[in-house]
Design goal:
Rossmann fold, about 10% strand, four-stranded parallel β-sheet, 7 helices, about 180 residues, alpha/beta, globular
């Protein structure tokens, strides 16, 4: 018998494969959108709206947090830019663990595990620590094998697809010329 799993999602396209995988395993999946790291607000809104559209089309219940807590995110990462991913993952996975405990879920996981660009060992460690703290197991699955297929399906089905992770730093890294140095 499947588990009741909370699936933290960063966006619609990254949700495609993990959702399909978990459903194929027989789990009852509820989505969760909480991403105060996404910058700017217009990008956050596009991702949230696309995620909501996708989950409605799939007939999957989703908890969508409309609180755009940019200040909370920035307070966590400013002056810690070298470790920003750790703080970002921690902020989001702790929230997912809290929601999972409150909703009496058997486990929680995240779509961040589908991306080959994310730090999987760090995600696993942070997810497991959050799960231990809040009493809900972190369900680690390496979803990366489905990344390319899901991205192609997202393009084919009209999903909004983004070009960077979401934070202001990843936006800079994506669009700033590579040879540009600080202070130039």
């Amino acid at each position: 018998m499947g588990k009741k799993i909370l699936l933290h999602s960063c966006c619609g396209p990254c949700t495609i494969y993990p959702l399909e995988y978990l459903k194929n395993e027989g789990h009852d999946v509820v989505g969760h959108f909480y991403n105060p790291n996404i910058h700017p607000f217009t990008e956050w809104k596009k991702r949230k709206d696309n995620y909501q559209w996708f989950m409605e089309n799939e007939g999957i219940k989703a908890i969508i947090e409309d609180d755009y807590d940019l200040e909370g995110y920035l307070q966590n990462v400013v002056h810690r830019e070298a470790n920003r991913c750790m703080y970002c993952y921690s902020m989001r996975l702790k929230r997912a663990a809290q929601i999972a405990r409150r909703g009496k879920f058997d486990a929680f996981t995240t779509t961040l595990l589908v991306s080959p660009f994310q730090k999987h060992e760090m995600l696993k460690e942070i997810g497991e620590a959050a799960g231990e703290k809040y009493g809900v197991p972190f369900y680690y699955i390496d979803f990366r094998p489905g990344f390319k297929e899901a991205y192609m399906r997202a393009k084919e089905t009209g999903h909004y697809t983004q070009q960077y992770c979401g934070c202001i730093y990843s936006e800079r890294d994506r669009y700033m010329p590579r040879n540009k140095k600080k202070g130039e």
